[in-house]
Amino acid sequence: MTDPRWLDEREFRAWLGYRRMRLLLDARIARDLSRDSGLSDPDYDVLSALSSSADRRWRLQALADRMLWSKSRLSRHISRMEERGLVTREECATDARGSVIVLTDDGMRAIEEAAPGHVESVRRHLIDLLSGEQIEVLGDIAEIVLRHLGEDGD
C-alpha cells in the first residue's frame, strides 16, 4: 500500500474553500428561490428540465438519473408536485412499467415566473462577483471535472 498523497496547503485551501462555498451558495440560492417563488430546488430542477424539452416531457427514470435521485424518491416528489398542479404523470407507451412526467400549463407558468428571480440570485451570489476571466476558468474547471465523472457538461 502506498502512502496517501496528502493535500498541500494550497490544495487544502482550494478544497475546503470549494466545499464551504458550495454549501453556502446552494443554501443561499435555494432560500432565495423558495422565498421568491415558493419552489424548492428539486421543484425547480424538475420544472426546468421539463420546460427545456420540446414536448415538455421526461421519462421518470431519466429525470431521476439527471437529478442523481432514486426513482422512488423522485416519484414521491413528483406526487407532491402533481398535487400542486405543476406536473402530471402518464404511462410510458414503450414501457408499461415506466412513466412519463409532463409539465402542466401551471408548471410552465411557475418556472417562467421563478426563472428571472433565480437567475438574479445566481448572478448576485456568484456570477457578478467574478471577472470574465474567472468565469471562463470556473467553466473550464467544471467541464474537466464533469468529464472525469462521466458527464458531458450539459
Keywords:
154 residues, mainly alpha, 12% strand, globular
Largest sheet: 3 strands, antiparallel
Q: Count the DSSP helices.
A: 6
Return the average pLDDT rounded to an integer: 94
Would you tell me the structural class of the helices and strands? mainly alpha
- Kindly report the CATH topology: Arc Repressor Mutant, subunit A
Question: Largest sheet, order of strands side by side?
Answer: 1-3-2
Cα(first) to Cα(last) distance is 38 Å
Helix content: 55-70%
Low-confidence stretches: none
- How would the global form be characterised? globular
What is the CATH first-level class name? Mainly Alpha
The total number of structural domains is: 1
CATH architecture: Orthogonal Bundle
- CATH superfamily membership, which one? Winged helix-like DNA-binding domain superfamily/Winged helix DNA-binding domain
Explain what this protein looks like in three dimensions.
The structure is a single chain. By secondary structure, the chain is mostly helical. It has one domain (40-148): Winged helix-like DNA-binding domain superfamily/Winged helix DNA-binding domain (Arc Repressor Mutant, subunit A, Orthogonal Bundle). It has six helices and three strands; from the N terminus they run H-H-E-H-H-E-E-H-H. The radius of gyration is 19 Å and the shape is globular.
Topology:
Elements: H1 9-37, H2 41-52, E1 57-59, H3 60-67, H4 71-83, E2 87-92, E3 95-103, H5 105-125, H6 132-148
Antiparallel strand pairs: 1-3, 2-3
Helix pairs in contact: 1-5, 2-5, 3-4
